[in-house]
């Protein structure tokens, strides 16, 4: 089945055909590293991790670039509050990004460019826009003239008459239009010299939108296969990227635009500006990163995700059930099958992959993982080793390779737990069920569940 993608540009589901055979170029907007990551960030990067994993699973070669906006008004303001250099502040949160995304088992991009590494390229890009008449200078600031780009609004489906000045739209009395946006900002006296670079227009720094256009074109070329980010970036950020990139090159900037839905808290978008966000560190203090990742996969990426304790507890319990089934499976069979041959399992595999082919539908893919869990439970009753080895291969392929859920491992338990298990096995042999249940509760209080096998043995599984 051909992969299909809902393209924000056309607002239609389209068949996916990259420009160069099986090579896919993908650019995802990265963080502005001035504060800790929150659940909204996690959703973006888990979504595009699924996109990347499935493209790789289908045999594509993916060059994935994701930037860090390491110079920005927010970084400057926060660094001044903390009495540190902007670069020092940015580096702290760049390092934290890799810690948190590592805990979520997110594959690394091939390149992580920073704005401060590409100032000469940004200046050259702006010079070309000025030379072509798409940009103009006012007192050391350079602005893009929106009215000069005839297709402005094609991504967000807006026109200039309908637009209102909103978040992150630059306001300046001397601009030709309130909707013209900054490509280059003249250095202010209050700003540290570290964030001021020489240019033909005097010392300054890049505007927000120009940075992604330059970094993507330098590393992936003038036309990208996939460009992604949260829905909040459609306007003005991605709209402005299109305008400045296509004005410069005369080529289509992006073939497929993919945008994920917001994380919702009490019917409002989770964001730092609304102060209703949960940092990943705080969430990971209560829930395993495996649970958080699973929870983020339970809705189609384009839909909003309503964060709640009830929802994440449900995800925790579901994942615990899958862990239990998998650990019982690997206690029965150690090796995975070389290939899957049973007809019903081949059909299940096809259904799972087709779900991800259909606009990376992780919600539907999870339903087939649940179906596989049921087959594992039935397979354990029959103890057919060949069947079990095929089930093991499929589970590891579905959960681990495609969905990026870290698989549980058998635990080495301490001596006291081993003694409790031995004592319980002894009383079970004597059919002392009351004492057996008492010992089960003791073990449960220590954070483990017990599964009794048909052969009389028992399996300990750590609770998530």
Characterization of the model:
The chain is α/β, with parallel strands linked by helices and 464 residues long. It folds into 3 domains: 19-269, HUPs (Rossmann fold); 308-402, Four Helix Bundle (Hemerythrin (Met), subunit A) (Up-down Bundle); 415-462, no CATH class. It has 14 helices and 15 strands. It has helices spanning 39-57, 73-82, 86-103, 119-131, 208-220, 234-249, 280-284, 289-296, 309-332, 343-357, 362-382, 385-402, 415-429, 433-445; strands at residues 4-7, 12-15, 23-28, 61-66, 135-138, 141-144, 181-186, 204-206, 224-230, 254-260, 263-265, 268-269, 305-306, 448-452, 458-462. It has a 4-stranded parallel sheet, with helices on both faces. A 4-stranded antiparallel sheet has the order 5-6-7-8. Helix 8 (289-296) packs across helix 9 and helix 13 runs antiparallel to helix 14. 41% of the residues are buried. Residues 165-169 have low confidence and may be disordered. Keywords: Aminoacyl-tRNA synthetase, ATP-binding, Cytoplasm, Ligase, Metal-binding, Nucleotide-binding, Protein biosynthesis, Zinc. A motif ('KMSKS' region) lies at residues 269-273.
